[in-house]
Input
Amino acid sequence: GWAMKNKCSCGRIVKRFRPVFLLLVGISFLLGGCQTIKQLLYSHDSLNFYTVEKDALYRSAQPTGVDLETIVKTYGIESVLNLRGKSPGQNWYDNELIVSEDCGLKRTDISMSAGRLPHRSEVLSLLDAYRDLPRPILVHCMAGADRTGLAAAVFAFDYMKLSKKEASRQLDVYYGHVPDMYPAMTEFFNIIYQGETWARESYDPCKVDTLHYDKVKYCGAPPEPDLSEAVRPAPAPPVPPSAALPPSTVKRRIDDER
Output
């Protein structure tokens, strides 16, 4: 009798506090640096790789060198569109450059941020990449969820001619995008973006009524450069040939790092 009563009591306590427990677990995972919810739930899919349009555009999280080689061989990738920007000296970037060179890939690097609306220059660079890069293209950021989702949605809308609603599915929790965490991506595509022609002719985030673009930081007049000899920095001394890195050091890959 005592064991049965104790069991029932524990069951009621667990049932009562289960929602709180699940909420705390969810928050701890999200704040613990998981790259995407989908990667959290499906750890076997850490690459977050999907087809946007067959033989045209594929999307993923940051690939390792081995990942990229495999994707190139499997899907015939011709170009890489990296939305994390140039990061020489970082293993993930150096690996990507080495594989791109070895496989003869064309590439474009755009330094986008999921925390704000894209700069005008970034949108134009994205559209230029879709226009100019040979296909199939692999587009990626770090997690393959937010910046990549926006880029995929733009492609689906402009080049696949899907409706806004259909194209916006590229920005979905299925791929790890959480609108409440990164609202700038969803706002830009769902509310602001009106297509390639509009973007090239009219897009200016400094003129958009939004909370997701720091106009004080990005829209002020840039300071005039002072080119007087008094403040001009001295040129850096030339690097002696002996200080140059040997080719074996440059062509180094650490494939387990993203």
User: Anything to note?
Assistant: Confidence is low (pLDDT under 50) at residues 31-44, 226-232, 241-250. Residues 69 and 99 are 7 Å apart (CA to CA).
